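Objective 1b: paired records.
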Amino acid sequence: MIARLSLVLCAALLSACQQESAALPDPVDVTAEAAGYYCQMALLEHDGPKGQIHLDGMPAPLFFSQVKDAVAYLHMPEQSHAVVATYVQEMSTGTWEEPGPWVEVSEAVYVIGSDMMGGMDAPEFVPFAMRAAAEAFAARHGGEIRAFDAITAQDVLGAPDAGAQAAQGEDDIAARLNALTSYKGQ
């Protein structure tokens, strides 16, 4: 009796999981009218992979000019609607000018900290469906490979390295002082 009940329960759970995964919306192709959620600029004007997030009760997805922006949105605690699905353009088969197909955000591995800048000329999280392609990309462009669930809020929402900012600020101040000294001497 217990074995039969367990079997029925497992079948019910499996059926619920199948129904839930079947209910996910398909990714939407980027059109000329698609604009980035944060920048409100046309997505097609930006190179690099993009992201889209489907929200419960909303008729169209939110588009993001960069994958990192979509991941940042997912890490923000205050959202008005539940996230139903998130897709990113994977780069295993794409180019920076023509990114690859949409994949579910958790199915990709990401190269973070590479020298490639995303659509808004900011550091990008570059998604790959194939780990070997991510490894080859990281060998050429630097960065580290991470699974989606290993990307933290600090990775996307944290401030840049304070030491690097301080050094850059000191260099900038020194350059300005030298420029003023040279100008005054003329």
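Objective 1b, second protein:
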Amino acid sequence: MSIRPATGADLEPIMALENASFPADAWSGAMMREELASPHGHYIVLESAGRVVGYAGLRAPRGAADADIQTIAIAEAARGRGYGRALLGALLAEAVSRGVRDVFLEVRADNPVAHALYVSEGFAEVGRRPRYYQPDDVDAVVMKLDVPGWVAARGAAPQAEVCT
């Protein structure tokens, strides 16, 4: 498994994962292309045996005090192996390198696996957005991570790029 920065050449496998992971509310290819090219974003892919099996994105303008995790997705066949945690860790390391103090995200209220991952990394619920995910009418749980606290809990600043 290796994690590397996403490029425009990764758009097709990213969109395949996007559509498989979020069938009711997947981003369009045009939206994802813009995200990959944005200087405010940091998108990464996870490869296994030469195939993209996961991706994740962070929106963190340089100099901003806060950032948002935009997305994390893992191919169904690759779930349960710690890949989501690896991608999350890589995004948080990038947030540290950009000087971010707080990271926010939304997670579907009906996704207990993702929710548990975020809680285990130190995210706390700070609110809810009723019926945020459409057309499913599922609430979004808004979560926040205190980045300096996350770093302190690990005893050292994480590396910005994670490759294993």
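The CA atoms of residues 45 and 55 lie 4 Å apart. Residues 2-154 form a domain with the Aminopeptidase fold (CATH 3.40.630.30).
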